[in-house]
Structure formats: structure tokens, C-alpha cells
From TrEMBL:
Protein name according to UniProt: Amidohydrolase family protein
Amidohydrolase-related domain: residues covered: 55-416
Single GO term (MF): hydrolase activity, acting on carbon-nitrogen (but not peptide) bonds
Record key words, sorted: Hydrolase
PANTHER family tied to this protein: AMINOHYDROLASE SSNA-RELATED (PTHR43794), CHLOROHYDROLASE FAMILY PROTEIN (PTHR43794:SF5)
NCBIfam families to which the protein is assigned, alphabetical: PRK08204.1
InterPro entries: Amidohydro-rel, Metal-dep_hydrolase_composite, Metal_Hydrolase, MTA/SAH_deaminase
């Protein structure tokens, strides 16, 4: 693999939990970071990248996204959670063929890379057959992204598989683990995406969690979104059943109680916040501040591009300003004004990088720029009127940058975006395939777009 020297960039490294910018060089060998120094004098035969005027930082980590839905952008732009469940999981999902899953996953992964996301948790509840699983995994591999593939339930019937369903997680999970994703050292690794106690029975939940542990996998589930948290009290049920361990990840957690947050913190569980879709679909206010307050490992996710944008820049900004609004409103109700903001852009950037890597169990290899870690690196060009002049690089990333400012993306030392352009030869053909996929499925199962 190439030796790459990144020179003269403003490098963002974490010091005592805070991002500190400094002009430095980074040397990459065999896919890993081997040096970060003020000036590296090293003979490089392969490639030198001049990062002058650019922010050099760890790639973003998206901790929760349903990639298979990528071809249906805007379908759920005005939907609530129940409309989404009926229209997507209960509507179009049963008509997905393996080729549709491949197209959606590949396009979604490339979209993520284009915006600087180098690692993603693909929560894939479209496992209608083994062929669907194979297609999803192959698309992730073909994209070049680092991914955890969350093997989920079939999308053949939302009502058959969710809520009071007693159907246990498909045993094909063992086959996927053994034949398709046996190694935890590759770019694409496996996790289990289960329904959990608020979308199935405790008998099913216990079975699915124990299956994940038997296979040595992280287990992720939705919890505490909308009315489901107070109604079903999933965290308490898991606690009473003795099932809470650090391998459990929870998406959303908007409506769980203060005591639930403490329980999750005590068991070192993690939370994935998907702020944009949570605010739209009525899941509740994002749990960003509560997670930070309770020192819970926490990351950000896009969730569904059927309703929201697919980049981390929007999620960071929404998470930051929503939490500030929540805290300020508490003061306003007392007739007070804030003297100091309680959450910073550095807090959010950490959630989008190292916090995300910790959330999905990959912090040993990605999420921060450190010697010995995989070279998952992005360069953001600040020589643009939208950003320039960049006097605070962290604010530049969180509050000003967009995907078109991402100049270079590197995953495991391999450059997958260069000079603002994705390195994928058939992008136009892929986008046309996605259009045909969406048209065919919607013609077969018309869904009213509000």
C-alpha cells in the first residue's frame, strides 16, 4: 500500500478531550498513521498531499443509518414516525429485491464518503433473504467505506416482525457470521440489529441479545423514541433481566427517564443520537445533553435519507443548536438569560468522530488522528467564501462546512475522494440505477408522498 505524506495542514488532534488545531504533517504507511509531527522529512516515493489551507481531521463516524433506503430521498420528508413505519417498512420494503438493496447501499455509502464519513453503522432491517444480505455486504465492500453491517430482520412485513411479535431473530445470522463476515479485522465487520423490548417481546429480545453474544457481536436496537419509551420502559426491562452490558447500543433514547440514563451509564452502554429525524418525526428532543451529562458513550447518526440529509455536517449543527435551545429554554422559563453556553462545537465534533467510533466499538482503529490507528482522514478546504477566513477550525467544521468543502477522503490509507471528486468510475450509472429502482418499486406499491 502507498506511503502518503500530508503536509502543511491544520491538524485537529484531541488533547484532554478537546480538539486542538496545529499546523503539522502526517505520514501514512500501510494504511496506518505512523507519524504526526510539526515537520516530517521523509523520502516519499508514492504521494505527497499539500494540505495548505485545509483542515486535516479524522473522518466522521455515522453510528446509525438505514442505507438500503437511499434511493427514496424525500419520500418521508413530511412524515411522522408512524407514517414512516407504514410507508417505508410496511409499504415499499417487501418489494425490495437484492439488486435494490445493493444499489441503495452502494449509493448511500458513496454519499457518506463524499461528505467525509469514513465509518458507518448500517442498520439493515431489509434482510428478506440471504441474497439480500449478500447484496448489502457486497455494496459496502465495493464502496470502500469502513462499516459495521447490522444484520437485522426481514422487511417483508413490519407488523409481522415488530411490536408484540414472538418471531425470533433469523438464525441466518449464524450463516452470515460464519460465511460472509467471519473476520473482525476487515473494513466491513458484523453487528446484530435487533428489535429490542419496545418493538418485540422480552423473550425475543433476550434470545436476540444472547445470539449476538454467542456470535461475538455488538447488538444495536431502537429505544425510547416517541411514545415507546414511557409506554414500554425498555431500559428498565433490560436491567431487570440482567441483559445490560457494554456491547449494547441504543438508537435515539429521546424519552427514557433520568434514571434510565444513569442505568445505561453504569453499564457502559452507548447511545446513537439522530437529531434531524428525531425532531421531524416526533421521537422527542435529542438526548445529546443528557448523554453528555451522564457521561454515556454517544455518537451521531443520519438515520434515514428518505427524510433528512445524508451528511454529518447537518447532524452536528442540528444536534448542537437543538441542545442549546433546550438549555436556554429552561433558563427563559425562569426569566433568565444564559451567561455561558453549556455545550460547545468541540463537544459535538467529538461525538461525530471519536465518540462515534467508541459508540460502535471501533475506537481502537478509527475516530481520531493517533499514531498506530488506521488512516481514516479527511481534508476540508477552508479557501472558500463560505468558510474563509477560518479563525476557529473546530467552528469551521461544525458550523460552516458542507460536503462540497471536503477535498480529500482516505479510508485505511486508501484515497476514495480526491480534489473534491469521488473516485468511483460508474457514479452516473449507479444514480440512474437508483432512480429505476425507486420508480419500479413505487409503481408496484404506490406510496402517497405528502
Amino acid at each position: 500500500m502507498k506511503t502518503i505524506l500530508i503536509q502543511h495542514g491544520t491538524v485537529l488532534t484531541l488533547q484532554n478531550g478537546v480538539f486542538v488545531p496545529k499546523v503539522a504533517d502526517i505520514l501514512v504507511k500501510n494504511g496506518k498513521i505512523v507519524k504526526i509531527e510539526n515537520e516530517i522529512n521523509h523520502p516519499v516515493d508514492d504521494e505527497i498531499i499539500d494540505a495548505s489551507g485545509m483542515i486535516v481531521m479524522p473522518g466522521f463516524v455515522d453510528t446509525h443509518r438505514h442505507l438500503w433506503e437511499t434511493a427514496f430521498k424525500g419520500l418521508a420528508g413530511n412524515w411522522t414516525l408512524m407514517e414512516y413505519l407504514n410507508g417505508v417498512l410496511g409499504g415499499i420494503a417487501p418489494d425490495f429485491e437484492p439488486k435494490d438493496v445493493y444499489t441503495g447501499n452502494l449509493l448511500g455509502a458513496l454519499e457518506a464518503i463524499n461528505s467525509g464519513i469514513t465509518t458507518i453503522f448500517d442498520w439493515s432491517h431489509i434482510m428478506n433473504s440471504m441474497e439480500h444480505a449478500e447484496a448489502a455486504i457486497q455494496a459496502l465492500r465495493d464502496s470502500g467505506i469502513r462499516a459495521k453491517f447490522g444484520y437485522g430482520t426481514p422487511g417483508t412485513s413490519v407488523w409481522e416482525w415488530f411490536y408484540e411479535s414472538k418471531l425470533k431473530h433469523p438464525l441466518e445470522a449464524k450463516t452470515v457470521r460464519k460465511k460472509l463476515l467471519p473476520s473482525d479485522e476487515e473494513l466491513v465487520t458484523m453487528a446484530l440489529a435487533i428489535r429490542g423490548p419496545e418493538y418485540s417481546t422480552m423473550e425475543v429480545t433476550s434470545h436476540d441479545i444472547l445470539l449476538g453474544r454467542e456470535l461475538g457481536l455488538q447488538v444495536s436496537m431502537h429505544i425510547g423514541g416517541g411514545a415507546f419509551g414511557p409506554r414500554y420502559n425498555g431500559v428498565q426491562k433490560l436491567f431487570e433481566a440482567g441483559l445490560l452490558e457494554p456491547d449494547l447500543n441504543f438508537a435515539h433514547a429521546n424519552t427514557i427517564s433520568e434514571n434510565d440514563f444513569k442505568i445505561l451509564a453504569n453499564h457502559n452502554c452507548s447511545i446513537s443520537v439522530t437529531p434531524e429525524v428525531e425532531l421531524q418525526m416526533g421521537l422527542g428532543l435529542p438526548a445529546t445533553g443528557k448523554a453528555i451529562k451522564n457521561r454515556i458513550t454517544c455518537g451521531l447518526g443520519v438515520d434515514v435519507v428518505t427524510a433528512t440529509s445524508g451528511n454529518m455536517f447537518d447532524q452536528m449543527k442540528v444536534a448542537l443548536q437543538a441542545e442549546r435551545a433546550i438549555q436556554n429554554e429552561i433558563l427563559y422559563q425562569k426569566g433568565e438569560m444564559p451567561e455561558k453556553l453549556t455545550i460547545t462545537d468541540s463537544d459535538i465534533l467529538k461525538m461525530a468522530t471519536l465518540g462515534g467510533a467508541q459508540t460502535i466499538g471501533l475506537a481502537d482503529r478509527t475516530g481520531s488522528l493517533e499514531v498506530g490507528k488506521q488512516a481514516d482522514i479527511i481534508l476540508i478546504d477552508t479557501r472558500n467564501i463560505s468558510i474563509a477566513p477560518s479563525v476557529n477550525p473546530v467552528s469551521s467544521v461544525v458550523l460552516y462546512a458542507k460536503e462540497n468543502h471536503v477535498d480529500t477522503v482516505m479510508v485505511g490509507g486508501k484515497i476514495v475522494k480526491r480534489h473534491g471528486t469521488l473516485i468511483y468510475p460508474h457514479l452516473q450509472e449507479l444514480m440512474e440505477n437508483a432512480r429505476k429502482s425507486a420508480t419500479r418499486i413505487l409503481n408496484k406499491k404506490p406510496v402517497k408522498v405528502i
